[in-house]
Backbone:
């Protein structure tokens, strides 16, 4: 590697130019709408209605954010709940997913295809909402509990299968030689396999964490206790409140002060996404670390 | 030896696992089936409510305190708990019951309303409405059937005072499943427009659809920065711009099919309005309006809130029912009096119908444990002045104050409990409902009075309820055809003469003939048995 | 006594126990509710419940087939998904490879974060943005066209442009998060392989073509197969929020899911929506059995099951 740094090779130059320019282009396309949303979230609602939203608002307004943070203790509690859900849920979920992924990729496990199919089949057929609702509410009695929010997003079969495919790149010889040394399957998994697939864990972990972070649907279905509103659902309710207030304003004839509507949606996107944007570089670092450890052990 | 025990243990493990799995599966399935079947085996009304024929309300045993769970729609205003604490004090004293509220928010009731019934959750009273699952829920046995005996016994005031038409309208397959509201309303479409712009271009007062179109095209031509009008709606259920069709005095049986009948007819005959040259003429007018740029070219996908746009001065006119427009007018008079807003009925002579009573109401859950007490509570909510005022307007002196007997004034505190905003619509009652003090309230009252005198016709089919069991599939298919092929014509995106033949063909394919025959058959039978 | 099955059970004891949590989960939360599949064939009432309701035969399916649009919406769904699969694959792999070639740490981090942003923007908001960009009167695109002397385009009445727009927005939303998978796979590649290639005198493009891409194959296979398994399901959020009720565009944009929504939004028949879900499931099932079968034949390890 060091030797190559001295002379600039044509092929690497071309590759670098192509990579930098293309990545820049895509990144810019991805970030522009986001800036538009940022602009929109700070725009006075009347300006959005009249002219649509722009990168730089003419009439700057904090109404939308003020509306969201009207009850700070509620939003802090919601944040707290979501953070703990995400932390606990992601660790458990990653553990189960990687463990299952490992088992169904073991070539010496005769039933791996049957179990893969049992998992996969659930992505094809589902009984729909009504039976799930009845199951959770009537039989498990989990509605209005922390558990339902923790449990339902826990196992995503897609990730088990992706994990299986990631783990295939780990040489089977590692498992075999460890078995000869007398190690049990579970020990092999914990001691040898997990450290080797940190990039995969970080990736899947990211998505599982996002699933916990972003979920409002299960809360909508199963949570009616205000103390158990996770962040996303709390914000979702705020939009609902604005719509309702508008309806009520029309019914009652009261003059309701300027309510942020579109601007509010934009501001919500910012509030939810902000923390993740800060978090993401850390996850990336974990990535890189995972890689180096993996390389050393490999 | 050791090996054998180990093997046994392993085998056990496997067997246990399989057993566990199969038990889990069968337990859940078996239970869900059985549990529900038991409920269906005994008609819910049978044993829980066996009112003795000669029991008077005073004689009803209310010694056992009960908590009634009530489900309402909308988001919960912040002061709701305070208000209902007051409500419960009164209810406790009068019938030894308290109400526990649960709100289904606007953005979730669509999902959750049916689920509450599917899972047979524990609740007693629930908001029911022709626009919120009333008929489907009743047909799926979600509500308790309310017999005349029960109503007479437990809700005597309601039974005595409710407009009988309400009971008829609330019937599904001949049975009553809700207590409908008892209040006059009409959804007749009107317009509101900018008087200052009309004067600016020396246009005469707008009195007809033609005047209105003239006004809009003038604005579209001359006011470059403005959108004249928001245009037809972005979905189609009925006609997409009622204000332009109201003079035809036609009514739909079901919004999914373009089948209409004359609202004045004693024996209504259904027909496809696309076969009616008067309708085609209207669609041509809409096409011309679109060509003149009266509404944006892509209004069909517009995400604009047109009511807000009008209030902000982006459009020159808006349409809606009187209730909405009166409020809009009030808001504009406060913010921009120089706009001189005018609320106009484009077809002052046309007949119109009253909103059916069952567009708001309260149903009782089929498996409610306290249906008697629920009815008694409902009777009080409707006819106890104090309770009605509390639930509808909030706490006197905090949220509102009375102006005379029939009017009210909102106080600044009303943001915590907006008047008529916490979903008390299910027990809205004539004689109890107060009028908002001020111009908007006056306009509303005087206009309604005028309509009641001159314009309102009672439909022969006012109490007709379509049984869609045999045509569900066709209705779904027709709904789709209308939205796909007919809506663009309303928006002037397709020329009527080019588009309508295609719509007709698609409607045929989707079974409009079958639907028409079935509906007509039911109507004929209805007319025969209700001469 | 020692049947092969029991012997295997013994042998795989630990492995089975390791599978148990996930297995119990899918049994409880996925397989048990699958009883609801019968709803597609039932006339559902609350009182009689899911299993007790009367059988309706195939009546719940009828509205779909008499609409005359079955072929159109099914075709659109499959074609869109096929386009999404191919284009997303190429873009995501491309971006991942390029990112891995970028030496500047901060540039890599920032650009990767930025590309992830669209993932967080809900389709509702994307729909609003698209309308802001594309509408005829004040849309950014048409304003730019006007400035450049090009006639404005009425996007919302031109079905032909929508396949491109929809593919674009879909790719835009997916590129960042899809690339993360491939990037993880690239990071797992043994560095020695690259060094060996360098020593053998391979240029940068040869290195990518002969080492990186083949190493990405398992990830590509699995993600593609998973997507193929959903090929009869339209992304409702995307299509509904971008196109809305604009019937003019439906010839090019209508998918099964938007069709069902439009037909049933007023009726809300649980049985009828279950029926179409069943239709989609069966088609997906058949497709994935076929595709997986072919994959198994050529590359046993890449197959899903």
Residues:
């Amino acid at each position: 590697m060091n030797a190559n740094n001295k002379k600039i090779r044509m092929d690497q130059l071309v590759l670098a130019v192509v990579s930098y320019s293309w990545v820049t282009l895509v990144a810019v396309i991805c970030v522009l709408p986001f800036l538009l949303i940022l602009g929109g979230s700070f725009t006075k609602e009347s300006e959005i209605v009249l002219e649509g939203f722009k990168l730089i608002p003419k009439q700057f307004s904090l109404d939308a954010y003020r509306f969201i943070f009207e009850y700070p203790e509620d939003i802090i509690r919601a944040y707290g709940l979501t953070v703990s859900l995400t932390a606990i849920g992601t660790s458990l979920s990653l553990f189960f997913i990687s463990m299952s992924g490992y088992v169904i990729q073991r070539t010496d496990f005769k039933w791996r295809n049957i179990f893969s199919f049992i998992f996969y089949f659930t992505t094809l057929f589902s009984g729909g909402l009504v039976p799930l609702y009845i199951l959770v509410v009537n039989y498990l009695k989990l509605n209005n509990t922390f558990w339902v929010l923790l449990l339902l997003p826990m196992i995503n079969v897609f990730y088990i299968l992706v994990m299986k495919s990631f783990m295939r790149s780990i040489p089977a010889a590692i498992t075999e030689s460890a078995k000869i040394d007398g190690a049990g399957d579970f020990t092999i998994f914990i001691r040898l396999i997990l450290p080797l697939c940190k990039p995969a864990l970080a990736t899947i972990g990211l998505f599982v964490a996002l699933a916990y972070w972003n979920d409002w649907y299960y809360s909508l279905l199963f949570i009616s206790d205000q103390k158990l509103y996770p962040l996303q659902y709390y914000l979702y309710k705020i939009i609902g409140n604005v719509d309702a207030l508008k309806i009520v304003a029309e019914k009652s004839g009261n003059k309701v002060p300027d309510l942020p509507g579109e601007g509010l949606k934009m501001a919500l996107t910012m509030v939810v996404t902000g923390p993740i944007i800060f978090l993401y570089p850390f996850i990336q670092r974990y990535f890189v670390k995972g890689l180096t450890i993996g390389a050393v052990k490999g | 030896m050791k090996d054998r025990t180990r093997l046994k243990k392993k085998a056990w493990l496997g067997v246990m696992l399989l057993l566990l799995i199969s038990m889990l599966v069968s337990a859940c399935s078996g239970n869900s089936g059985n549990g529900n079947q038991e409920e269906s085996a005994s008609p819910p009304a049978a044993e829980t409510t066996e009112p003795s024929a000669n029991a008077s309300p005073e004689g009803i045993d209310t010694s056992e305190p009960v908590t009634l769970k009530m489900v309402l729609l909308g988001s919960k205003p912040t002061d709701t708990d305070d208000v209902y604490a007051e409500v419960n004090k009164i209810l406790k004293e009068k019938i030894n019951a308290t109400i526990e509220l649960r709100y289904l928010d606007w953005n979730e009731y669509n999902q959750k309303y049916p689920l509450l019934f599917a899972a047979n959750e524990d609740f007693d009273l629930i908001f029911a409405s022709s626009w919120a699952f009333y008929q489907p829920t009743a047909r799926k046995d979600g509500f308790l059937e309310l017999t005349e005996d029960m109503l007479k016994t437990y809700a005597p005031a309601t039974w005595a005072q409710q407009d009988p038409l309400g009971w008829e309208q609330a019937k599904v397959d001949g049975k009553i499943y809700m207590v409908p509201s008892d209040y006059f309303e009409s959804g007749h479409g009107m317009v509101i427009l900018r008087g200052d712009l009309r004067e600016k271009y020396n246009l005469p007062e707008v009195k007809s659809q033609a005047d209105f179109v003239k006004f809009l095209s003038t604005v579209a031509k001359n006011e470059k920065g403005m959108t004249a009008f928001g245009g037809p709606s972005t979905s189609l259920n009925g006609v997409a711009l009622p204000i332009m069709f109201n003079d035809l005095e036609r009514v739909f049986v079901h919004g999914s099919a373009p089948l209409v009948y004359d609202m004045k007819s004693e024996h209504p005959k259904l027909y496809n309005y696309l076969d009616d040259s008067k309708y085609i003429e209207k669609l041509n007018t809409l096409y011309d309006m679109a060509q003149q740029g009266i509404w944006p070219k892509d209004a069909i996908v517009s995400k604009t809130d047109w009511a807000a746009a009008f209030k902000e001065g982006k459009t020159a006119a808006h349409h809606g029912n009187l209730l909405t427009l009166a409020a809009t007018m009030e808001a504009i008079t406060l913010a921009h009096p120089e706009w001189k807003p005018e609320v106009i009925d484009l077809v002052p002579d046309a007949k119109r119908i009253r909103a059916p009573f069952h567009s708001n109401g309260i149903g009782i859950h089929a498996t409610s444990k306290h249906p008697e007490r629920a009815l008694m509570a409902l009777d009080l909510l409707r006819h106890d002045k104090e309770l009605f005022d509390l639930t509808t307007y909030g706490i006197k002196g905090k949220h509102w104050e009375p102006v005379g007997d029939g009017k009210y004034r909102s106080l600044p505190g009303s943001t915590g409990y907006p008047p008529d905003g916490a979903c008390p619509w299910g027990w809205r009652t004539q004689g109890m409902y107060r009028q908002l003090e001020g111009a908007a309230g006056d306009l509303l009252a005087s206009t309604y009075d005028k309509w009641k005198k001159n314009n309102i016709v009672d439909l022969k089919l006012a109490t007709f309820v379509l049984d869609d069991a045999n045509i569900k599939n066709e209705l779904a298919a027709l709904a789709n055809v209308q939205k796909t092929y007919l809506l663009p014509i309303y928006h002037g995106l397709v020329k009527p003469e080019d588009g309508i033949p295609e719509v007709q063909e698609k409607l045929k394919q989707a079974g409009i003939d079958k639907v028409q025959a079935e509906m007509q058959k039911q109507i004929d039978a209805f007319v025969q048995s209700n001469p | 006594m020692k049947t092969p099955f029991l012997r295997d059970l013994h042998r795989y004891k630990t492995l089975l126990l390791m599978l148990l949590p996930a297995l119990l989960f899918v049994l409880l939360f996925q397989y048990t509710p699958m009883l609801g599949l019968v709803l597609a064939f039932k006339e559902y009432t609350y009182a009689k419940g899911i299993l007790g309701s009367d059988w309706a035969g195939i009546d719940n399916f009828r509205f779909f087939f008499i609409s005359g649009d079955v072929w159109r919406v099914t075709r659109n769904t499959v074609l869109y998904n096929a386009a999404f699969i191919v284009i997303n694959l190429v873009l995501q792999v491309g971006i991942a490879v390029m990112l891995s070639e970028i030496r500047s740490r901060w540039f890599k981090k920032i650009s990767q974060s930025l590309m992830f942003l669209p993932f967080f923007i809900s389709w509702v908001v994307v729909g609003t943005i698209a309308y802001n960009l594309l509408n005829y009167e004040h849309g950014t695109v048409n304003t730019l066209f006007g400035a450049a002397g090009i006639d404005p385009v009425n996007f919302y009445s031109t079905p032909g442009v929508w396949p491109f727009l929809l593919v674009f927005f879909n790719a835009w939303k997916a590129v960042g998060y899809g690339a993360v998978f491939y990037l993880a796979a690239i990071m797992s590649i043994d560095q020695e392989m690259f060094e060996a290639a360098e020593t053998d005198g391979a240029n940068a493009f040869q290195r990518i073509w002969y080492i990186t891409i083949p190493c990405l194959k398992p990830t590509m296979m699995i993600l593609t197969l998973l997507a193929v398994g959903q090929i009869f399901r339209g992304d409702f959020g995307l299509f509904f929020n971008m196109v809305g009720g604009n019937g003019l565009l439906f010839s090019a944009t209508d998918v099964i899911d938007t069709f069902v929504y439009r037909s049933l939004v007023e009726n809300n028949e649980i049985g009828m929506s279950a029926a179409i879900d069943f239709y989609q499931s069966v088609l997906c099932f058949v497709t994935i059995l076929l595709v997986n079968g072919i994959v198994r034949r050529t590359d046993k390890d890449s197959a899903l099951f």
Notes: The CA atoms of residues 175 and 188 of chain A lie 7 Å apart. Chain A touches chain B at residues 45-46, 49-50, 129-131, 133-135, 137-139, 220-221, 224, 236-237, 239-241, 243-245, 247-256, 261-262 (CB under 8 Å).
